[in-house]
Amino acid sequence: MSEAKVEAPQSAAPVRRIGLKHVIGYACVNFLGGGSTTLISAWLMFFYTTMCGLSAVSASIIFTCARIFDALLNPIMGFITDNFYKTSIGRRFGRRRFFILLGIPSILVVFPAMWLPGMSLGYYFLINLLYEIVFTMVIVSCVSLPAEMTQVAADKAKLTGGKQMCGVISSTIAAFIPGLMFGIYGQENTIAFTMTGVVYGIMMAVSLVVVWMWTYEKRPEEVHVFSNTSSLKGIFLSILSNVKQALKLRAYRLHCVILAMGCIYKNLATGIFTYFVVSVLFVSQQDAAWVLGITQMTSFAALLLCIFLCLRFGAPATFRMFSVVVAIGCLGYFALSRMVGMDYMTIVLCIIAIISFAGRAGIDYIPVFQLPFMADIDEIVHGERREGIFTGVNTLFSRAATGIEAFAIGLGLAAFGYVKGTTEQSEFTQEGIMLIAVISPLIFLGIGWIASVRLKLTKETHQIVCREVARLKAGGKKEDVDPQVKAVVENLTGYSYDKCWTIKH
After folding, report:
1. Contact 224, 7 (CB under 8 A)
2. pTM for the whole thing?
3. Which of 15, 216, 224, 489 is the most exposed place for a label (fewest CB within 10 A)?
4. Are 452 and 258 in contact (CB under 8 A)?
5. 132 CB burial (10 A radius; 0-12, 13-18, 19+)
6. Is the pLDDT confidence value at 498 over 80?
7. Same fold, 20-216 and 243-499
8. 115-163 pLDDT, tens per residue?
Protein backbone atom coordinates (compact mmCIF):
# COMPACT_ATOMS: atom_id res chain seq x y z
CA MET A 1 0.00 0.00 0.00
CA SER A 2 1.47 3.31 -0.99
CA GLU A 3 1.53 6.01 1.64
CA ALA A 4 1.15 9.53 0.36
CA LYS A 5 2.27 12.07 2.91
CA VAL A 6 -0.23 14.91 3.17
CA GLU A 7 1.36 16.85 5.95
CA ALA A 8 4.89 16.71 7.25
CA PRO A 9 6.43 18.35 10.25
CA GLN A 10 7.04 22.02 9.59
CA SER A 11 9.13 22.88 12.59
CA ALA A 12 11.27 21.18 15.13
CA ALA A 13 9.58 20.27 18.37
CA PRO A 14 10.61 22.45 21.30
CA VAL A 15 12.61 20.55 23.89
CA ARG A 16 10.56 20.51 27.08
CA ARG A 17 11.90 19.29 30.38
CA ILE A 18 9.79 16.88 32.38
CA GLY A 19 9.13 18.48 35.74
CA LEU A 20 7.41 17.26 38.88
CA LYS A 21 4.02 18.55 37.76
CA HIS A 22 4.26 16.55 34.52
CA VAL A 23 5.08 13.39 36.47
CA ILE A 24 2.15 14.01 38.81
CA GLY A 25 -0.10 14.81 35.88
CA TYR A 26 0.65 11.61 34.04
CA ALA A 27 0.62 9.51 37.22
CA CYS A 28 -2.88 10.64 38.14
CA VAL A 29 -4.37 8.54 35.34
CA ASN A 30 -3.88 5.54 37.62
CA PHE A 31 -6.76 6.71 39.80
CA LEU A 32 -8.72 5.33 36.87
CA GLY A 33 -6.34 2.58 35.80
CA GLY A 34 -5.45 1.20 39.23
CA GLY A 35 -7.82 2.40 41.93
CA SER A 36 -11.06 1.77 40.08
CA THR A 37 -9.93 -1.75 39.16
CA THR A 38 -9.30 -2.56 42.82
CA LEU A 39 -12.67 -1.17 43.85
CA ILE A 40 -14.58 -2.99 41.12
CA SER A 41 -12.81 -6.32 41.66
CA ALA A 42 -13.38 -6.25 45.42
CA TRP A 43 -16.91 -4.90 45.72
CA LEU A 44 -18.97 -4.51 42.54
CA MET A 45 -19.89 -8.19 42.03
CA PHE A 46 -20.54 -8.48 45.77
CA PHE A 47 -22.85 -5.46 45.53
CA TYR A 48 -24.73 -6.89 42.57
CA THR A 49 -25.24 -10.31 44.15
CA THR A 50 -26.07 -9.21 47.69
CA MET A 51 -27.82 -5.86 47.21
CA CYS A 52 -29.18 -5.82 43.66
CA GLY A 53 -30.77 -9.25 43.33
CA LEU A 54 -28.51 -10.53 40.56
CA SER A 55 -27.43 -14.15 40.54
CA ALA A 56 -23.72 -14.93 40.60
CA VAL A 57 -23.87 -16.21 37.01
CA SER A 58 -25.66 -13.09 35.75
CA ALA A 59 -23.15 -10.81 37.45
CA SER A 60 -20.23 -12.79 36.08
CA ILE A 61 -21.63 -12.62 32.54
CA ILE A 62 -21.78 -8.82 32.84
CA PHE A 63 -18.11 -8.56 33.79
CA THR A 64 -16.93 -11.19 31.34
CA CYS A 65 -18.65 -9.58 28.36
CA ALA A 66 -17.52 -6.10 29.38
CA ARG A 67 -13.87 -7.13 29.69
CA ILE A 68 -13.80 -9.12 26.46
CA PHE A 69 -15.36 -6.09 24.78
CA ASP A 70 -12.62 -3.94 26.31
CA ALA A 71 -9.94 -6.28 24.96
CA LEU A 72 -11.31 -5.91 21.43
CA LEU A 73 -11.83 -2.16 21.84
CA ASN A 74 -8.21 -1.42 22.78
CA PRO A 75 -6.65 -1.68 19.29
CA ILE A 76 -9.62 0.14 17.74
CA MET A 77 -9.24 3.01 20.18
CA GLY A 78 -5.52 3.10 19.49
CA PHE A 79 -6.27 3.38 15.76
CA ILE A 80 -8.72 6.23 16.38
CA THR A 81 -6.33 8.27 18.54
CA ASP A 82 -3.42 7.74 16.15
CA ASN A 83 -5.44 9.30 13.33
CA PHE A 84 -7.52 11.86 15.21
CA TYR A 85 -5.37 14.79 14.05
CA LYS A 86 -7.09 14.35 10.68
CA THR A 87 -10.22 15.88 12.22
CA SER A 88 -10.77 19.53 13.11
CA ILE A 89 -11.63 18.53 16.69
CA GLY A 90 -8.38 16.61 17.01
CA ARG A 91 -6.32 19.50 15.67
CA ARG A 92 -7.98 21.86 18.14
CA PHE A 93 -8.06 19.76 21.31
CA GLY A 94 -5.39 17.12 20.66
CA ARG A 95 -5.57 13.61 19.30
CA ARG A 96 -4.92 12.07 22.76
CA ARG A 97 -5.93 14.81 25.18
CA PHE A 98 -9.35 15.30 23.58
CA PHE A 99 -10.36 11.85 24.82
CA ILE A 100 -8.93 12.57 28.27
CA LEU A 101 -11.03 15.74 28.35
CA LEU A 102 -14.08 13.80 27.19
CA GLY A 103 -13.44 11.24 29.92
CA ILE A 104 -13.85 13.78 32.74
CA PRO A 105 -17.64 14.27 32.56
CA SER A 106 -18.12 10.72 31.28
CA ILE A 107 -16.51 9.04 34.28
CA LEU A 108 -18.29 11.42 36.63
CA VAL A 109 -21.63 10.10 35.34
CA VAL A 110 -20.91 6.49 34.40
CA PHE A 111 -18.96 5.28 37.44
CA PRO A 112 -21.53 6.27 40.09
CA ALA A 113 -24.28 4.89 37.81
CA MET A 114 -22.68 1.44 38.12
CA TRP A 115 -23.45 1.46 41.86
CA LEU A 116 -27.18 2.24 41.75
CA PRO A 117 -29.38 -0.44 43.40
CA GLY A 118 -32.68 -1.81 42.12
CA MET A 119 -31.93 -1.64 38.41
CA SER A 120 -32.45 -4.35 35.79
CA LEU A 121 -29.91 -6.83 34.46
CA GLY A 122 -29.98 -5.00 31.11
CA TYR A 123 -29.14 -1.73 32.85
CA TYR A 124 -26.14 -3.16 34.67
CA PHE A 125 -24.96 -4.84 31.48
CA LEU A 126 -25.17 -1.60 29.50
CA ILE A 127 -23.62 0.63 32.15
CA ASN A 128 -20.63 -1.70 32.52
CA LEU A 129 -20.10 -1.64 28.75
CA LEU A 130 -20.23 2.16 28.85
CA TYR A 131 -17.68 2.18 31.65
CA GLU A 132 -15.33 0.00 29.61
CA ILE A 133 -15.65 2.42 26.69
CA VAL A 134 -14.74 5.38 28.91
CA PHE A 135 -11.97 3.41 30.61
CA THR A 136 -10.41 2.34 27.31
CA MET A 137 -10.86 5.78 25.74
CA VAL A 138 -8.81 7.40 28.50
CA ILE A 139 -6.26 4.68 29.24
CA VAL A 140 -5.32 4.03 25.61
CA SER A 141 -4.93 7.77 25.05
CA CYS A 142 -2.69 8.10 28.10
CA VAL A 143 -0.46 5.10 27.34
CA SER A 144 1.05 7.03 24.43
CA LEU A 145 1.76 10.21 26.38
CA PRO A 146 5.30 9.37 27.62
CA ALA A 147 6.43 8.86 24.03
CA GLU A 148 4.65 12.08 23.04
CA MET A 149 6.04 14.16 25.91
CA THR A 150 9.72 13.22 25.77
CA GLN A 151 12.35 11.25 23.87
CA VAL A 152 14.67 11.10 26.89
CA ALA A 153 14.77 7.64 28.45
CA ALA A 154 15.30 8.99 31.98
CA ASP A 155 12.25 11.26 31.68
CA LYS A 156 10.14 8.38 30.40
CA ALA A 157 11.24 6.40 33.43
CA LYS A 158 10.12 9.26 35.67
CA LEU A 159 6.68 9.28 34.08
CA THR A 160 6.10 5.53 34.19
CA GLY A 161 7.61 5.20 37.67
CA GLY A 162 5.36 7.95 38.99
CA LYS A 163 2.37 6.25 37.42
CA GLN A 164 3.22 2.96 39.10
CA MET A 165 3.58 4.61 42.51
CA CYS A 166 0.29 6.41 42.01
CA GLY A 167 -1.29 3.03 41.27
CA VAL A 168 -0.43 1.86 44.78
CA ILE A 169 -1.69 5.12 46.32
CA SER A 170 -4.95 5.12 44.36
CA SER A 171 -5.61 1.44 45.09
CA THR A 172 -5.08 2.07 48.80
CA ILE A 173 -7.48 5.03 48.79
CA ALA A 174 -10.06 3.11 46.76
CA ALA A 175 -9.86 0.15 49.15
CA PHE A 176 -10.53 2.35 52.20
CA ILE A 177 -13.51 4.28 50.80
CA PRO A 178 -16.10 1.47 51.21
CA GLY A 179 -15.09 1.09 54.86
CA LEU A 180 -15.70 4.79 55.45
CA MET A 181 -19.08 4.62 53.73
CA PHE A 182 -20.10 1.52 55.73
CA GLY A 183 -19.22 3.40 58.91
CA ILE A 184 -21.35 6.39 57.90
CA TYR A 185 -24.39 4.73 56.33
CA GLY A 186 -24.27 1.15 57.65
CA GLN A 187 -23.04 -1.93 55.83
CA GLU A 188 -26.56 -3.15 55.00
CA ASN A 189 -27.52 0.16 53.40
CA THR A 190 -27.22 0.33 49.61
CA ILE A 191 -26.50 4.06 49.91
CA ALA A 192 -23.06 3.13 51.25
CA PHE A 193 -22.22 1.46 47.93
CA THR A 194 -23.77 4.25 45.88
CA MET A 195 -21.79 6.88 47.79
CA THR A 196 -18.66 4.81 47.25
CA GLY A 197 -19.27 5.16 43.53
CA VAL A 198 -20.02 8.87 43.82
CA VAL A 199 -16.99 9.70 45.97
CA TYR A 200 -14.50 7.75 43.90
CA GLY A 201 -16.12 8.94 40.66
CA ILE A 202 -15.46 12.52 41.76
CA MET A 203 -11.87 11.62 42.66
CA MET A 204 -11.30 10.10 39.23
CA ALA A 205 -12.79 13.13 37.48
CA VAL A 206 -10.54 15.48 39.47
CA SER A 207 -7.51 13.29 38.73
CA LEU A 208 -8.29 13.41 34.99
CA VAL A 209 -8.47 17.21 35.20
CA VAL A 210 -4.92 17.11 36.59
CA VAL A 211 -3.88 14.74 33.78
CA TRP A 212 -5.35 17.07 31.17
CA MET A 213 -3.78 20.21 32.72
CA TRP A 214 -0.29 18.85 33.40
CA THR A 215 0.42 16.70 30.35
CA TYR A 216 0.96 17.56 26.72
CA GLU A 217 1.39 15.81 23.38
CA LYS A 218 3.00 16.45 20.03
CA ARG A 219 1.61 19.28 17.96
CA PRO A 220 -0.25 18.43 14.74
CA GLU A 221 2.62 19.77 12.63
CA GLU A 222 5.04 17.39 14.38
CA VAL A 223 3.01 14.33 13.39
CA HIS A 224 3.19 12.63 10.00
CA VAL A 225 -0.32 12.27 8.60
CA PHE A 226 -0.98 9.85 5.75
CA SER A 227 -3.82 9.94 3.26
CA ASN A 228 -4.25 6.16 3.12
CA THR A 229 -5.58 4.86 6.43
CA SER A 230 -6.08 1.21 7.28
CA SER A 231 -9.67 0.06 7.54
CA LEU A 232 -11.17 -1.51 10.64
CA LYS A 233 -11.11 -4.82 8.78
CA GLY A 234 -7.41 -4.35 8.27
CA ILE A 235 -6.96 -3.69 11.99
CA PHE A 236 -8.67 -6.93 12.95
CA LEU A 237 -6.69 -8.90 10.36
CA SER A 238 -3.52 -7.29 11.68
CA ILE A 239 -4.43 -8.26 15.24
CA LEU A 240 -4.91 -11.89 14.24
CA SER A 241 -1.66 -11.88 12.30
CA ASN A 242 0.20 -10.34 15.24
CA VAL A 243 -1.17 -12.90 17.66
CA LYS A 244 -0.12 -15.74 15.34
CA GLN A 245 3.38 -14.37 14.83
CA ALA A 246 3.95 -13.54 18.48
CA LEU A 247 2.83 -16.96 19.69
CA LYS A 248 5.28 -18.72 17.38
CA LEU A 249 7.99 -17.51 19.72
CA ARG A 250 8.48 -20.14 22.44
CA ALA A 251 9.51 -17.70 25.17
CA TYR A 252 6.48 -15.53 24.49
CA ARG A 253 4.10 -18.51 24.58
CA LEU A 254 5.40 -19.41 28.02
CA HIS A 255 5.29 -15.74 29.04
CA CYS A 256 1.63 -15.59 28.02
CA VAL A 257 0.83 -18.61 30.18
CA ILE A 258 2.48 -16.90 33.15
CA LEU A 259 0.67 -13.65 32.29
CA ALA A 260 -2.75 -15.25 31.89
CA MET A 261 -2.50 -17.41 35.01
CA GLY A 262 -1.25 -14.43 37.01
CA CYS A 263 -4.03 -12.16 35.74
CA ILE A 264 -6.73 -14.72 36.49
CA TYR A 265 -5.30 -15.34 39.96
CA LYS A 266 -4.83 -11.70 40.98
CA ASN A 267 -8.37 -10.68 40.02
CA LEU A 268 -9.86 -13.84 41.48
CA ALA A 269 -7.99 -13.24 44.75
CA THR A 270 -9.45 -9.74 45.03
CA GLY A 271 -12.93 -10.71 43.79
CA ILE A 272 -13.45 -13.70 46.09
CA PHE A 273 -11.83 -12.01 49.09
CA THR A 274 -14.96 -10.09 50.08
CA TYR A 275 -17.20 -13.16 49.80
CA PHE A 276 -14.72 -15.24 51.84
CA VAL A 277 -14.27 -12.69 54.61
CA VAL A 278 -17.97 -11.81 54.98
CA SER A 279 -19.72 -15.14 54.35
CA VAL A 280 -17.12 -17.64 55.62
CA LEU A 281 -15.21 -15.82 58.37
CA PHE A 282 -18.20 -13.66 59.38
CA VAL A 283 -16.09 -10.52 59.49
CA SER A 284 -18.05 -7.34 58.85
CA GLN A 285 -17.98 -5.62 55.47
CA GLN A 286 -16.44 -2.57 57.09
CA ASP A 287 -13.58 -4.58 58.59
CA ALA A 288 -13.13 -6.35 55.25
CA ALA A 289 -12.68 -2.96 53.60
CA TRP A 290 -10.10 -1.88 56.23
CA VAL A 291 -8.14 -5.10 55.79
CA LEU A 292 -8.14 -4.74 52.01
CA GLY A 293 -6.93 -1.14 52.35
CA ILE A 294 -4.06 -2.15 54.61
CA THR A 295 -2.96 -4.86 52.18
CA GLN A 296 -2.81 -2.30 49.39
CA MET A 297 -0.63 -0.04 51.54
CA THR A 298 1.88 -2.81 52.21
CA SER A 299 2.00 -4.06 48.61
CA PHE A 300 4.47 -1.33 47.66
CA ALA A 301 7.21 -2.99 49.76
CA ALA A 302 6.48 -6.31 48.04
CA LEU A 303 6.75 -4.58 44.67
CA LEU A 304 10.21 -3.21 45.49
CA LEU A 305 11.32 -6.66 46.65
CA CYS A 306 9.98 -8.21 43.46
CA ILE A 307 11.94 -5.75 41.31
CA PHE A 308 15.13 -6.62 43.19
CA LEU A 309 14.54 -10.38 42.88
CA CYS A 310 13.71 -10.12 39.16
CA LEU A 311 16.98 -8.30 38.54
CA ARG A 312 18.91 -10.78 40.69
CA PHE A 313 17.35 -14.12 39.74
CA GLY A 314 15.19 -13.45 36.68
CA ALA A 315 11.42 -13.21 36.31
CA PRO A 316 10.61 -16.96 36.04
CA ALA A 317 12.43 -17.80 39.29
CA THR A 318 10.85 -14.80 41.02
CA PHE A 319 7.41 -16.00 39.89
CA ARG A 320 8.02 -19.26 41.69
CA MET A 321 9.18 -17.46 44.84
CA PHE A 322 6.06 -15.31 45.01
CA SER A 323 3.87 -18.31 44.20
CA VAL A 324 5.20 -19.87 47.41
CA VAL A 325 4.23 -16.69 49.28
CA VAL A 326 0.71 -16.93 47.83
CA ALA A 327 0.52 -20.60 48.83
CA ILE A 328 1.43 -19.66 52.42
CA GLY A 329 -1.38 -17.09 52.39
CA CYS A 330 -3.83 -19.68 51.04
CA LEU A 331 -2.92 -22.10 53.83
CA GLY A 332 -3.51 -19.27 56.27
CA TYR A 333 -6.98 -18.65 54.82
CA PHE A 334 -7.78 -22.36 55.15
CA ALA A 335 -6.68 -22.35 58.79
CA LEU A 336 -8.84 -19.29 59.50
CA SER A 337 -11.87 -20.98 57.97
CA ARG A 338 -11.48 -23.69 60.64
CA MET A 339 -11.17 -21.19 63.49
CA VAL A 340 -14.25 -19.03 62.94
CA GLY A 341 -15.15 -17.09 66.06
CA MET A 342 -11.61 -16.97 67.46
CA ASP A 343 -10.43 -13.90 69.33
CA TYR A 344 -8.62 -11.27 67.29
CA MET A 345 -9.94 -12.78 64.05
CA THR A 346 -9.66 -9.49 62.17
CA ILE A 347 -6.06 -8.93 63.26
CA VAL A 348 -4.99 -12.44 62.27
CA LEU A 349 -6.90 -12.08 58.97
CA CYS A 350 -5.05 -8.82 58.30
CA ILE A 351 -1.65 -10.49 58.82
CA ILE A 352 -2.50 -13.40 56.53
CA ALA A 353 -4.01 -11.06 53.92
CA ILE A 354 -0.84 -8.95 53.91
CA ILE A 355 1.18 -12.10 53.15
CA SER A 356 -1.24 -13.20 50.44
CA PHE A 357 -1.52 -9.80 48.75
CA ALA A 358 2.26 -9.32 48.95
CA GLY A 359 2.51 -12.44 46.80
CA ARG A 360 -0.21 -11.04 44.55
CA ALA A 361 1.74 -7.77 44.07
CA GLY A 362 4.77 -9.74 42.90
CA ILE A 363 2.76 -11.97 40.57
CA ASP A 364 1.18 -8.83 39.11
CA TYR A 365 4.51 -7.15 38.37
CA ILE A 366 6.49 -10.07 36.93
CA PRO A 367 4.89 -10.04 33.41
CA VAL A 368 5.48 -6.27 33.26
CA PHE A 369 9.17 -6.79 34.00
CA GLN A 370 9.44 -9.71 31.60
CA LEU A 371 7.67 -8.24 28.56
CA PRO A 372 10.50 -5.99 27.24
CA PHE A 373 12.78 -9.03 26.86
CA MET A 374 10.45 -10.59 24.31
CA ALA A 375 11.23 -8.10 21.57
CA ASP A 376 14.96 -8.83 22.02
CA ILE A 377 14.36 -12.55 21.63
CA ASP A 378 12.08 -11.95 18.65
CA GLU A 379 14.72 -9.79 16.96
CA ILE A 380 17.11 -12.68 16.44
CA VAL A 381 14.37 -14.51 14.52
CA HIS A 382 12.93 -11.72 12.40
CA GLY A 383 15.79 -9.25 12.34
CA GLU A 384 13.60 -6.33 13.37
CA ARG A 385 12.18 -4.66 16.48
CA ARG A 386 8.47 -5.32 17.03
CA GLU A 387 7.69 -4.12 20.57
CA GLY A 388 4.23 -2.98 19.54
CA ILE A 389 3.14 -6.49 18.58
CA PHE A 390 3.97 -7.90 22.00
CA THR A 391 2.42 -4.98 23.86
CA GLY A 392 -0.81 -5.30 21.89
CA VAL A 393 -1.07 -9.06 22.29
CA ASN A 394 -0.30 -8.69 25.99
CA THR A 395 -3.26 -6.35 26.37
CA LEU A 396 -5.58 -8.78 24.64
CA PHE A 397 -4.46 -11.67 26.85
CA SER A 398 -4.61 -9.72 30.11
CA ARG A 399 -8.10 -8.34 29.51
CA ALA A 400 -9.38 -11.69 28.28
CA ALA A 401 -7.92 -13.32 31.39
CA THR A 402 -9.77 -10.91 33.69
CA GLY A 403 -12.99 -11.79 31.87
CA ILE A 404 -12.34 -15.48 32.48
CA GLU A 405 -11.75 -14.75 36.16
CA ALA A 406 -15.12 -13.02 36.55
CA PHE A 407 -16.91 -15.89 34.84
CA ALA A 408 -15.04 -18.43 36.97
CA ILE A 409 -16.14 -16.74 40.20
CA GLY A 410 -19.75 -16.56 39.03
CA LEU A 411 -19.89 -20.19 37.97
CA GLY A 412 -18.09 -21.29 41.13
CA LEU A 413 -20.49 -19.45 43.42
CA ALA A 414 -23.50 -20.78 41.51
CA ALA A 415 -22.17 -24.35 41.60
CA PHE A 416 -21.90 -24.19 45.38
CA GLY A 417 -25.43 -22.84 45.77
CA TYR A 418 -24.73 -19.18 46.53
CA VAL A 419 -27.99 -17.44 47.44
CA LYS A 420 -28.30 -13.92 46.08
CA GLY A 421 -29.44 -11.06 48.26
CA THR A 422 -27.84 -12.19 51.53
CA THR A 423 -24.43 -12.63 53.14
CA GLU A 424 -25.63 -15.64 55.15
CA GLN A 425 -24.93 -18.82 53.21
CA SER A 426 -25.25 -22.55 53.85
CA GLU A 427 -22.30 -24.59 55.12
CA PHE A 428 -21.97 -26.17 51.67
CA THR A 429 -21.73 -22.72 50.07
CA GLN A 430 -19.22 -21.57 52.68
CA GLU A 431 -17.03 -24.56 51.95
CA GLY A 432 -17.31 -23.79 48.24
CA ILE A 433 -16.23 -20.17 48.74
CA MET A 434 -13.32 -21.39 50.85
CA LEU A 435 -12.26 -23.79 48.09
CA ILE A 436 -12.39 -21.00 45.49
CA ALA A 437 -10.30 -18.74 47.74
CA VAL A 438 -7.75 -21.43 48.67
CA ILE A 439 -7.56 -24.06 45.91
CA SER A 440 -8.14 -21.99 42.75
CA PRO A 441 -5.06 -19.77 43.22
CA LEU A 442 -2.91 -22.88 43.69
CA ILE A 443 -4.25 -24.40 40.46
CA PHE A 444 -3.70 -21.29 38.34
CA LEU A 445 -0.30 -20.50 39.80
CA GLY A 446 0.65 -24.17 39.51
CA ILE A 447 0.10 -23.94 35.76
CA GLY A 448 2.15 -20.75 35.73
CA TRP A 449 4.85 -22.52 37.77
CA ILE A 450 5.20 -25.22 35.09
CA ALA A 451 5.56 -22.55 32.40
CA SER A 452 8.13 -20.65 34.49
CA VAL A 453 10.25 -23.80 34.88
CA ARG A 454 10.27 -24.28 31.10
CA LEU A 455 11.08 -20.62 30.40
CA LYS A 456 14.89 -20.41 30.63
CA LEU A 457 14.95 -16.62 30.60
CA THR A 458 17.54 -15.03 32.88
CA LYS A 459 19.65 -11.93 32.57
CA GLU A 460 22.50 -14.20 31.42
CA THR A 461 20.52 -15.93 28.64
CA HIS A 462 19.04 -12.60 27.62
CA GLN A 463 22.50 -11.10 27.27
CA ILE A 464 23.62 -14.10 25.23
CA VAL A 465 20.82 -13.44 22.75
CA CYS A 466 21.54 -9.69 22.63
CA ARG A 467 25.24 -10.28 22.02
CA GLU A 468 24.45 -12.74 19.24
CA VAL A 469 22.15 -10.17 17.59
CA ALA A 470 24.95 -7.60 17.82
CA ARG A 471 27.41 -10.10 16.28
CA LEU A 472 25.08 -10.82 13.37
CA LYS A 473 24.37 -7.13 12.83
CA ALA A 474 28.10 -6.53 12.64
CA GLY A 475 28.33 -9.02 9.78
CA GLY A 476 29.16 -12.15 11.74
CA LYS A 477 28.47 -15.46 10.01
CA LYS A 478 25.78 -17.78 11.31
CA GLU A 479 27.99 -20.83 10.83
CA ASP A 480 30.46 -19.35 13.35
CA VAL A 481 27.93 -19.43 16.19
CA ASP A 482 29.10 -20.82 19.52
CA PRO A 483 27.29 -24.11 20.35
CA GLN A 484 26.19 -22.77 23.75
CA VAL A 485 24.78 -19.63 22.17
CA LYS A 486 23.00 -21.72 19.56
CA ALA A 487 21.39 -23.85 22.26
CA VAL A 488 20.19 -20.77 24.18
CA VAL A 489 18.75 -19.15 21.05
CA GLU A 490 16.91 -22.30 20.03
CA ASN A 491 15.53 -22.81 23.53
CA LEU A 492 14.16 -19.28 23.86
CA THR A 493 12.89 -18.82 20.31
CA GLY A 494 11.59 -22.32 19.60
CA TYR A 495 13.18 -22.04 16.14
CA SER A 496 16.06 -23.98 14.71
CA TYR A 497 19.06 -21.65 14.62
CA ASP A 498 19.25 -22.16 10.84
CA LYS A 499 15.82 -20.49 10.54
CA CYS A 500 16.78 -17.50 12.64
CA TRP A 501 17.94 -14.16 11.23
CA THR A 502 16.42 -15.03 7.85
CA ILE A 503 12.65 -14.55 8.37
CA LYS A 504 11.42 -11.23 7.05
CA HIS A 505 7.86 -9.81 7.05
Report:
1. yes
2. 0.80
3. 15
4. yes
5. buried
6. yes
7. yes
8. 999 999 999 999 999 999 999 899 888 877 887 888 675 677 678 778 8
